[in-house]
Amino acid sequence: MTTAIVIIVAVLVVAAAVYFFVIRRGPVGGRSLQSRFGPEYDRVVARHGGDTKAAEQELGERVKLHGDLEKRPLTEAARAEYTARWARTQEQFVDSPQQALHEADALLADLSRDRGFPAGESFEERADALSVHHPRHIDGYRRVHTARSDGTGTEEMREAFVDARNLFDALLADGPAPRRQDNRQLTKGQGTS
């Protein structure tokens, strides 16, 4: 009888270890990082001059640092205020695209902080934390952040703003963000010069 208990306990310990290291933590290298991070994986590999090992080490560190982050819920009042802020920022784009990008950048930083992402000392720290949970949407945020000051043309600013809206939607939602139609004002040929 004690041998059966020892075997059952050993099986449970192995099952718990498998759950923790494989299922809960998820795979950490190679193709798993590439599929998890998508375009962000490619961006990091390019930044490391094609060195996939260095890129995967960086992305693995991001997962270790920010993978267990639990998002804080927003109150309905906060959700409504953020939605109103984005609408005002979007309207401002017509008259002042660079100012609208500056506002969108600040709004995304505020929203991510309120959802529980680390504020970080720098934009890159915030973007790295966000990339772990929203890798498909982080590029728009990066583009808004750089386009607000690098002399980017209006069309490129509009595209960055529209792409950043995807991160805004994802942060605003409790689950995966639905594709919103509120970007109609900024569709190609409308509201830009």
Descriptive notes:
69% of the residues lie in helices and 0% in strands. The protein is built from nine helices and no strands. The model is unreliable at 20-28, 175-185 and 187-193 (pLDDT under 50). It starts with a helix and ends in a 21-residue tail after the last helix. This is Secreted protein. It comes from Streptomyces microflavus (Streptomyces lipmanii). Residues 172-193 are annotated as: Disordered. The chain crosses the membrane at residues 6-23.
Brief overview:
The chain is mostly helical and 193 residues long.
What is the CA-CA span between the terminal residues? Answer: 81 Å
The number of distinct β-strands equals: 0
Number of helices: 9
Give a short account of the largest sheet. none
Model regions low in confidence, pLDDT < 50 over at least 5 residues: 20-28, 175-185, 187-193
Tally of domains? 2
Our estimate of the beta-strand percent is under 5%
Form type? flat
List the secondary-structure elements in sequence, H or E.
HHHHHHHHH
Helix content: 55-70%
What Rg do the Cα atoms give?
21 Å
The mean pLDDT is 82
Structural class: mainly alpha
Transmembrane segments: 6-23
Keywords: Membrane, Transmembrane, Transmembrane helix
Protein name: Secreted protein
Region (Disordered): 172-193
